Structures are given as C-alpha cells and as structure tokens.
Amino acid sequence: xxxxxxxxxxxxxxxxxxxxxxxxxxxxxxxxxxxxxxxxxxxxxxxxxxxxxxxxxxxxxxxxxxxxxxxxxxxxxxxxxxxxxxxxxxxxxxxxxxxxxxxxxxxxxxxxxxxxxxxxxxxxxxxxxxxxxxxxxxxxxxxxxxxxxxxxxxxxxxxxxxxxxxxxxxxxxxxxxxxxxxxxxxxxxxxxxxxxxxxxxxxxxxxxxxxxxxxxxxxxxxxxxxxxxxxxxxxxxxxxxxxxxxxxxxxxxxxxxxxxxxxxxxxxxxxxxxxxxxxxxxxxxxxxxxxxxxxxxxxxxxxxxxxxxxxxxxxxxxxxxxxxxxxxxxxxxxxxxxxxxxxxxxxxxxxxxxxxxxxxxxxxxxxxxxxxxxxxxxxxxxxxxxxxxxxxxxxxxxxxxxxxxxxxxxxxxxx
Length: 415
Known about the structure:
Shape: elongated
Oligomer: single chain
CATH class of the largest domain: Alpha Beta
CATH topology of the largest domain: Molybdenum Cofactor Biosythetic Enzyme, Chain A
Structural class: alpha/beta
Largest sheet: 6 strands, mixed
Number of helices: 16
Strand content: 25-35%
C-alpha cells in the first residue's frame, strides 16, 4: 500500500505555518509499513482540492487529507468530498452530541456553524473527534481509501493513532519499513562519502543509503523493507557493524539520538557532572543540556561570560591572558573551562569563546573563529580551534555541536 498525503491550507503556502502534520503522518505511516508516495500542499480552493484528490486517488490506494473541515466559510473540504464521491450531506446525531458535549464542557454554546459540522457525507464512515468539533471522514471504494481529517495537529494525531492506523493495520498484509540512522560529527558530507565509498558500493540489494546533512552533523540513514522484522534488523545491523569499523571516530549516536542526550546518559552512568562557561554561544549549550529531563543529575550550571569582566572576576581568567592573547584564544577557552569546573565544583568544564558574527571579526580572527576547551578534574584539558563561517545562527549551533562532541570524546564508555 502506498499513500498520497494532501495538506490543505493557505497558511502553509504563504510560509506562515510549517506543515508538521504531513511530517508526523509520513513517519507514522512508515512505522506502519505504508510508503508515502507524495505529499502535496494546496490552498483552500474547491478546484484545487478536487483535482488533487482525483490525481491522488488515481495514483495511490490510500489518500490522506488534513485541513478544511472547520466551521468557517473557507472550510470547503467536506463539500468537495461530497461532490467527488457523489454523496449527500445528512445530519449525524452522534456527531452533534459529540460537538454539544465538547463545547458544553468548555462553557460554550453550540452555534449554527457548529451544528453544520454535524452534517456529514452519507457515504462516509465517520471518525469521531473527542478533542475537537470537526469529525473525520473515511471513504472506501474499489480503488482504496480516502480519509479526511481536521488540520489541527492534535485532532489529526488523535484520529490517526486511535482509529486510522489500527484499522489500516488490521486490513492490510503487513509490510515493515525499517529505518536506522547513524549519526556522525567532525567530517563533511563529501569527505564522509569518500571514506565509505567502498562500503556503500557493497551494500546488499534492498538496503538504501541516504546522506542527511545538517549544521555540523551528517546523518546516514539505512532503509530496508520486508515482512520479517528480525531479518530486517539483522541485515541492517551487519552493515552498521561494518561501518563502525571504517569510521569509528566520527560516529556518536544512532537513530534519534541527540548529542546532549548521549552525553547526558554517559555522565549519569558515570555519576559525573559538567558545567559550561559560554561567551559567543550565550547559554545555548546549557539550554540544550537542560532540555533533557533529569539533566539536573549531571548538569550543575552555566556562566555566560559575554563580557571580559565576567571572565576574569567570576571565572578567574587572568587579565594577562586576555591582554596578551585576546578573548578569542586557546588560552582563554582553557581558562574558562577550568574556571567554571572549579567554581561550580564539577568533574568537567566546557569553555567556549569566539566571534559569532556578523561583526567583530578581524583579519587574524575572522567571523566564525571559535575556540572550545573541555577540562577534566585531575588537570587534563583539551582544546580545539574551529573556523565555522559567516552566519551567526549556524556558528552558534555548530559550536554547540562541537562542544558536546568534544565532551563526549572525553567520556570513554559508550552506552
């Protein structure tokens, strides 16, 4: 079975709303063994909806639509569905009861527009909506299925999770699609491709590889499909084991791991703690670490040392280092890492200082110059110079990734 997703709404076409619905649906469908053939975003326009529905139904056995089922005049999806499937509208008493109860529990009265939502296509199976007022519709014919759901994300997810996916799974022969991600850092996409070219060439038939680069990280996605999950897992694992032997120093995680999550698990496992001293990243690394639930077990705190007075008076960076080498230097990054470790009494300290941009660069230290240091109780300090580029936002993200990766490299056990 292959799916065609139609997302309806002007707000997505003008760039004011991100189409998170389609991304979530595609992931959920893949997990259920259903391939997504295409995702289409269209306006709240009768002709556009009808033509796209016709195209989707002609190509795929499963068409999923979100949007345009609300109570206002621009919500025209229901009318187009009636025209397409040659169905009349009828009053559904259960839907009216659902709407009445939903609004009453929120201290609201049922308006005429709300009552109109209880008028549903006669030929559709109704998907009841316990978290909103717009019901969903499921049409079946010889060509397959067409399922229309509200565009409100939590309403769509409720219907997909509780009704659509379980029903589809019970009706279709099971085909599993397995994705496994290998997360890498410290190497660009082209260099990575060169290193693993031989391994990639020898991948068995039926296993596909995709390179998914982001800011400072390249994710390798391996995909295969079939009816036997144990066999799929075994085939993928064999290839990942080979890959680990080729690029062991660049792999830091798998699947949906984040660097902050991996580092957090390792610190917690070791019973150790870390603190950050941040200049150009302005607390970004601390924000990522504390985004993980339970991070208080291993993260003590952060000092945002944007001004040199904070570096010297709170972190204990010697004035001579600042005057001789400048704030953006190996010496200052290392002093910041050691200073925050001593001040907050942790096992590790991270120090970051640099020129995020867009201003402040010099010929010697252009925008994107960042020094990162990681100190360890016992005296060991490692530091590295990075040249990230001229974009402030990307420089901060890449500095955060680099700092967390450097800390991870100091934690020898991988869990």
